[in-house]
């Protein structure tokens, strides 16, 4: 149970996992005591007024009731994909279910429920690792064998990997990488607090990204997960962020909306007074998809996208990514679990992991997106994204420096 309490303009929050009368009484007492010790909050924007929530159905009863055996069977199917080559492997299958109730003293009353299932694993062959993952609202949609087959194929391709000199390379980034890009663009760019504080790269109304790309946030889309309202009780809705390369919107909570003279977009998160609003259901697709809701269609199949690369890299995943400069979206990080050299349209061999330092906004700048593959999928529950073929990515060294 989380309680937000405001008295005399002083705001405090408290949480507890006790739901008995004594536990709730102590929760209120703690919040009151904390509020008395704090100064008035001049940016407090009041409570969310009563408002209906759009119908959102991201719940599956079978997933809610899934047994450990059912989850283990998905992991077993994943690991079996490496059995012919006696690959070492590990993985997990997780199912979660949440029921959220919200109420405030201005009369807003909301409830929602959601489920989520994930398979994530890794297989190793001759010192090379290959990973595979899937996320969905329902456990039945997970295909452990398919995820494992992809991981096994990447592990085989990665054997006898070579070192590659640092430099700029044409790349095909798979969805896990693109989700990482969207996380930084959304959290540090289209966040209205970052924008108001002068720390965002976004200039609303300007063509900042490639015209092939549109980005939007939509918790009501059937491909998303989660409930239909935010931490302040504001209903969520679709918000366009980039339309055919043009930055067109920001996400707001009640604080930033009041500051900007607009209304909340339903993107408040706990503790948002420090960080700001955050998009949690981001979609990236070919220009026009934001309006139609369809999947990205440019670029043909992923194999055809890779086939258009004369010399470059196919990148499976990023990790340990850290933003160096929110204003320019320069991020540093590493590749992992599958990095491959592409020559004359064919994956030729594995490459040892590389470090990169790259502006995420610059990588998607006008003229930089060569193709968008039709393989969009849900990644980490927060982004529904495809693979991207980009003109240039700046690799600065090996994984050890």
Task: Give a verbal description of the structure.
The chain is α+β, with helices and mostly antiparallel strands and 401 residues long. It folds into three domains: 35 residues; 97 residues, 2-Layer Sandwich (PmbA/TldD fold), CATH 3.30.2290.10; 241 residues, no CATH class. It is built from eleven helices and 18 strands. The chain has a six-stranded mixed β-sheet, covered by helices on one side. The protein is globular, with a radius of gyration of 23 Å. The two termini are 45 Å apart.
The N- to C-terminal Cα distance equals 45 Å
Specify the helix fraction band. 10-25%
How many distinct domains? Answer: 3
- Shape by Cα distribution: globular
Order of helices and strands: EEHHHEEEHEHHEEEHHEHHEEEEHEEEE
Uncertain runs with pLDDT below 50, 5 residues or more?
290-297
DSSP strand (E) fraction? 25-35%
* Global Rg: 23 Å
Strand order of the biggest β-sheet: 9-8-7-10-17-16
The chain-level structural class is alpha+beta
Quaternary organization: single chain
- Largest sheet properties: 6 strands, mixed
The tally of helices reads 11
- In round numbers, the mean pLDDT is 94
DSSP strand count: 18
């Amino acid at each position: 149970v989380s309680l937000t309490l405001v008295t005399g303009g002083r705001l405090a929050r408290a949480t507890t996992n006790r739901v008995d009368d004594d536990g709730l009484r102590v929760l209120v007492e703690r919040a009151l005591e904390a509020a008395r010790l704090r100064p008035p909050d001049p940016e407090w924007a009041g409570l969310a007024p009563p408002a209906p929530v759009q119908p959102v159905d991201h719940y599956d009863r079978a997933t809610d009731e899934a047994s450990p055996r059912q989850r283990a069977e998905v992991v077993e199917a994943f690991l079996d994909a490496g059995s012919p080559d006696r690959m070492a492997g590990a993985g997990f299958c997780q199912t979660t279910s949440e029921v959220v109730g919200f109420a405030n003293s201005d009369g807003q009353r909301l409830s929602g429920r959601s489920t989520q299932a994930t398979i994530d694993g890794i297989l190793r062959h001759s010192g090379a690792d290959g990973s595979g993952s899937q996320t969905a609202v329902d456990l039945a949609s997970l295909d452990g064998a398919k995820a494992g087959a992809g991981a096994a194929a990447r592990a085989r391709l990665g054997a006898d990997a070579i070192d590659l000199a640092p430099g700029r390379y044409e790349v095909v980034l798979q969805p896990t990488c693109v989700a990482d890009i969207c996380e930084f663009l959304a959290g540090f760019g289209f966040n209205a607090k970052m924008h108001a504080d002068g720390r965002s790269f976004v200039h609303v109304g300007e063509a900042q990204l490639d015209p092939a790309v549109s980005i939007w946030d939509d918790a009501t889309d059937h491909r998303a997960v989660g409930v239909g309202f935010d931490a302040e009780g504001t209903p969520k809705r679709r918000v366009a962020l980039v339309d055919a390369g043009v930055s067109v919107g920001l996400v707001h909570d009640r604080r930033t909306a009041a500051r900007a003279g607009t209304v909340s977009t339903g993107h408040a998160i706990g503790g948002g007074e420090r960080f700001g609003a955050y998009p949690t259901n981001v979609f990236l697709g070919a220009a026009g998809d934001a309006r139609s809701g369809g999947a990205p269609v440019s670029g043909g199949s992923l194999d055809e996208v890779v086939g258009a690369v004369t010399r470059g890299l196919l990148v499976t995943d990023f990790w340990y990514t850290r933003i160096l400069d929110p204003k320019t979206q320069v991020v540093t990080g590493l590749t992992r679990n599958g990095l491959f050299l592409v020559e004359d349209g064919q994956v030729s061999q594995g490459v040892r992991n590389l470090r990169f330092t790259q502006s995420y906004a610059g990588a998607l700048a006008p003229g930089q997106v060569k193709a968008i593959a039709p393989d969009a999928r849900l990644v980490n529950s927060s982004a529904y994204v495809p693979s991207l073929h980009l003109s240039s990515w700046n690799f600065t060294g090996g994984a050890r420096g």
